[in-house]
Write a structure and sequence with these properties.
Layout lengths: L4 E4 L9 H11 L4 E6 L11 H10 L4 E6 L7 H7 L3 E5 L6 H10 L3 E6 L17 E5 L14 H14 L5 E5 L6 H8 L3 E4 L1 H4 L5 H13 L9
Parallel strand pairs: 1-8, 2-3, 3-4, 4-5, 5-6, 6-7, 7-8
Bound molecules: D-xylitol-5-phosphate and zinc ion.
Length: 229
């Protein structure tokens, strides 16, 4: 089996128990902690900022995968890098000069990620695809955890996987939104290798450690037929 990573999305966790939630992810074998930064402008919701990333940084050595859903991300890159982000992912819709933004993220010592909304075509990435460390495909309209996966995004992942292969790029291909025991195998088959999960991880009735284990089992089992271990 090709390697893959699981990145629980911390905004779906219980913030009163942040450090415990993170260490439960870590012990269960999660690979990255995904942090959704929303500004109430590019997306309707406001979530967390650099102080929260700093708190996560103190709670874990796992890579922090910071997803910036903000207008004018260029102004925020430095502060998130200083807060301890390992990966910084920006939306193509928010970057007038993508090349410059990618370069700046790398100069700050972070891995550079690029993402796009469901309605934005994969061709919007072409200019920077050879330069990025990570491509994130949104499989819901960004703004909230707990939405339903859009199956139309399977084709987009396949398209981007083909482009990355043609470039011989080793960039991670990550999917975010509605990832569950059932949907992870579909996106893995399409060529994705990093899976973000908010609700499916943190809202598992037996806690996040069990949530992470179920999601990992989705690939060990091939994920289908639709049964829960
Ligand atoms: C969507 C965010 C996601 C979200 C994922 O706006 O970028 O990372 O928290 O949550 P689930 O897995 O519940 O769809
Ligand atoms: Zn996200």
């Amino acid at each position: 089996m090709r390697p893959y990573l699981l990145a629980p999305s911390i905004i779906a966790s219980d913030f009163t128990r942040l450090a415990d939630e993170i260490s439960a992810c870590e012990s269960a074998g999660a690979d990255w902690i995904h942090v959704d930064v929303m500004d109430g402008h590019f997306v309707p919701t406001i979530t967390v900022g650099p102080l929260f990333v700093e708190a996560c940084r103190r709670a874990t050595k796992l890579p922090l995968d910071v997803h910036l859903m903000v207008s004018n991300p260029d102004q925020q890159l430095e502060v998130f890098a200083k807060a301890g982000a390992d990966n910084i992912t920006v939306h193509v819709e928010t970057c007038p000069n993508l090349l410059q933004t990618i370069e700046k993220i790398k100069l700050l010592g972070c891995k550079a990620g690029i993402t796009l909304n469901p309605l934005t075509p994969a061709s919007a990435l072409d200019e920077v695809l050879p330069l990025v460390n990570l491509v994130l495909v949104m499989s819901v309209t960004p703004g909230y955890s707990g939405q339903t996966f859009m199956p139309e995004m399977i084709g987009k992942v396949e398209e981007i996987r083909n482009k990355l292969n043609a470039l011989r790029s080793l960039a991670w291909l990550e999917v975010d939104g509605g990832m569950t025991y059932e949907t992870i195998p579909l996106m893995y088959k399409a060529g994705a290798n990093v899976f973000v999960a908010g609700n499916a991880a943190f809202k598992h009735p037996m806690g996040v450690a069990q949530g992470v284990k179920v999601l990992q089992a989705s690939l060990q089992d091939g994920g289908l037929p639709l049964k829960q271990p």
